[in-house]
C-alpha cells in the first residue's frame, strides 16, 4: 500500500501544524492521514501513513464527543452530505485539543460509499479565518484527494466530475503524471 501524501491545502492563516488531511478507505477500514493529524492524535506519522482502523482513531476522541462524531460520519456515508463537527481529541499525555473536522464521502462507479476524505483544523480558539474560507479550503483539498483516488482507481466517471468541480473553483487539475496513490 502506498503511503499517504495529501495534496496541498492553501495556507490561509493557519500554521502547517493546524491543518491536516485524512482519507478513510471504507472497504479496507483504513484511515490514512498526514503528519499534522498524526501529531494531533498522538500517533506515529509512519503508522498513520500506512493506515489505522477507524476504531483506533475514534478512541482518541473525547468520550462525550465520540457518539456525535460517529453519527456525523455515518450520516455522510449514508446520505452523501458533507459533515462538519467540532470536538475534542485526547492526546496520549492527557492534553485536550479542540478541532473542527469537515469531510465528505465519495462513491464509486456503482454508487457505493467508497472513501471518506476530509480536513481537520486544530486549536479552534487560535483560528482567525471565517468558517466560509475554512470550508472552501476543505472542499478544494477534499476534491483534489478524491480526484487522485478516482484516477488511481480508474473511475473515469468520478474523475471527470471532480475535474469539472475543481475547474469551476478555479483550481488546476493534476495530470496523470502528477497524481499520486493516496489510499
TrEMBL record:
<feature type="domain" description="PAS">
    <location>
        <begin position="21"/>
        <end position="80"/>
    </location>
</feature>
<protein>
    <submittedName>
        <fullName>PAS domain-containing protein</fullName>
    </submittedName>
</protein>
<dbReference type="InterPro" id="IPR013655">
    <property type="entry name" value="PAS_fold_3"/>
</dbReference>
<dbReference type="InterPro" id="IPR000014">
    <property type="entry name" value="PAS"/>
</dbReference>
<dbReference type="Pfam" id="PF08447">
    <property type="entry name" value="PAS_3"/>
</dbReference>
<dbReference type="InterPro" id="IPR035965">
    <property type="entry name" value="PAS-like_dom_sf"/>
</dbReference>
Amino acid at each position: 500500500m502506498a503511503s499517504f501524501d495529501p495534496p496541498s491545502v492553501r495556507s490561509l492563516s493557519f500554521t502547517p501544524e493546524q491543518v491536516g488531511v485524512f482519507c478513510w478507505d471504507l472497504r479496507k477500514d483504513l484511515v490514512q492521514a498526514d503528519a499534522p493529524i498524526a501529531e494531533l492524535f498522538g500517533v506515529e506519522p509512519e503508522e498513520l501513513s500506512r493506515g489505522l482502523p477507524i476504531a483506533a482513531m475514534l478512541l482518541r476522541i473525547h468520550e462525550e464527543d465520540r457518539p456525535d462524531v460517529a453519527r456525523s460520519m455515518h450520516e455522510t456515508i449514508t446520505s452523501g452530505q458533507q459533515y462538519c463537527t467540532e470536538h475534542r481529541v485526547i492526546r496520549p499525555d492527557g492534553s485536550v485539543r479542540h478541532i473542527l473536522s469537515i469531510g465528505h464521502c465519495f462513491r464509486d462507479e456503482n454508487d457505493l460509499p467508497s472513501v471518506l476524505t476530509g480536513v481537520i483544523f486544530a486549536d479552534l480558539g487560535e483560528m482567525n479565518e471565517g468558517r466560509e474560507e475554512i470550508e472552501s479550503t476543505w472542499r478544494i483539498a477534499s476534491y483534489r484527494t478524491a480526484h487522485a483516488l478516482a484516477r488511481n482507481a480508474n473511475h473515469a466517471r468520478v474523475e471527470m466530475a471532480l475535474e469539472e468541480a475543481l475547474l469551476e473553483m478555479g483550481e488546476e487539475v493534476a495530470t496523470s503524471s502528477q497524481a499520486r496513490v493516496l489510499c
